[in-house]
């Protein structure tokens, strides 16, 4: 069936498109012909066969209808379709029950389109000089803005349907100020949809007024954050695997939306022949490979959190749809491999149609995968929720650990896939950069490599060892984790100088397009980095933030959810990294502090941090999250106040060690800087005959002569 169009979405111009779904065997023969061109072995030119054109709008509508049909069939199989409840039970009606997942599908499609056009404008499209978007990029930003406004509208509409479905009310009963104002901000899903709608509106306005690739990339990051919000309250949150479900859900959404969105934008450009897309396809193939890995691994993790056994893949409707999605994913991987190995390397302007045809097939299969994913997200999984014996264990998502010992705290293990995977990736990329430098004969200090790997090890220990488990039920052990995560790990990571390594290891891009190295340079000199490295801002979030977090209800509120706990750990790590980056960092930063300023900032931090520890030790009541630690209280915590006082003592003691270490590092750096400055002055004096010193002495002589004459 042909997928072609003779119309354009923006500007009103009609542009012929020649995108068709080919016969697979014929396409394979075309790929084998490859670079031999249009002539056969006999030298005769093959006739060009043109297929009748179909408007792109009709093709898109047909694809959406097919996806909705697949979604509805999948809902019937998984048990997520409408069935009339027993008399007396709330009934939102068939329109609400069917409309909610359909609106979710349409909302996801709008999000995918927004992300795809922003990815094209920031990374895939040809760029203008100085980071300014080209005319193609500007049109893609306009398309992203339109898609974002549609995304916002669909999100708020889906919120109303979801609210009606959860409350068991009809649309007329739900769409009232009383119901919406009372319940919309109390349910995680509807609250996320409201936030998405606001962010999508901001993205739409931002895309309209943006003119640089840096701004487009910033809006892309915001769009990815917005798209991941519904995953924070998914099915797996209540199944006893909070960390795995959260990490897998977000990774799945980010990988799938980047993959589908980028391919969608490239397919449209290939069909319209807006620009030579060979480089864009090659850049996107790397993005697609990473996205495929994310989708595949996170899909397996999602299945683990929602199924009790492998047999449920066959015996339950939910498992059957999951299995169908796996088959679709394998097919997508095969098509992506064809694009990466057989098309992207030999793509020319005259062969753009090959990519357009294969991409159209992949988009069709991707649409089916998205529909299956929405059906799974809208249906109850067969896994039985884990039942715990106490309210505290239900809040934690795991049973109380035994009384802490050195072995259980230091050598215990509980997987946190977000930090564990992220840390391993960071270590692998660093080692790859060092290996690349050494392969071309360059050197890299071994001390920096050791420092980075030790810092990664500390992060893994803080988030995956026994201390990570015990910190959620004990104030003293929480403060131990905090001090190590916020002080020891950042110091080691900063001394590893990862940005300097990346700048040396990554090859620069050619032309105006920004590659990874150019994006890193842009980030290091961008206005967000100037704000992030401002000493007043860093001092506020690193030190003053302690008071705002621990001495207010914010601490208990964040401890009450896995998302909040992850946020705190990320805050500790990044706040510490920023603080030590501007104090002892080797990597370039927008405006380095003088060494005396670094000493002053460190002394102020030590003083304010010490005062915080004194507050904890002198407190006569439980001041740290009493609403959390009084509920999540294992039998071996017999005195909450004593535990809190111990936490203050730990905060005081552990802060001294890294502070002394940092003072030593600053002193060494200051001394080395003076030595370099002296050597530079000596070399300058050798070159100009000590002109600066002679000029200074002449000036002193003139002043002395002036004083003698006036006396």
UniProtKB/TrEMBL annotation:
Subcellular localization(s) per the UniProt record: Cell membrane
The UniProt record lists the keyword Cytoplasm: no
Keyword Protein biosynthesis recorded: no
Pfam families in UniProt: Caa3_CtaG, CopD
Residue ranges of every copy of the Copper resistance protein D domain listed in the record: 279-376
Membrane topology per record: Multi-pass membrane protein
GO biological process, alphabetically ordered: copper ion transport
GO CC terms in record: plasma membrane
Membrane-crossing residue ranges in chain numbering: 56-82, 102-124, 145-169, 189-209, 216-237, 243-268, 280-301, 321-339, 360-380, 418-437, 449-471, 483-506, 536-560, 566-583, 595-618, 650-671
Keyword list, A-Z: Cell membrane, Membrane, Transmembrane, Transmembrane helix
Main location: membrane
Coiled coil: none
InterPro entries (alphabetical): Caa3_assmbl_CtaG-rel (IPR019108), CopC/D (IPR032694), Cu-R_CopD_dom (IPR008457)
UniProt-recorded name of the protein: Unannotated protein
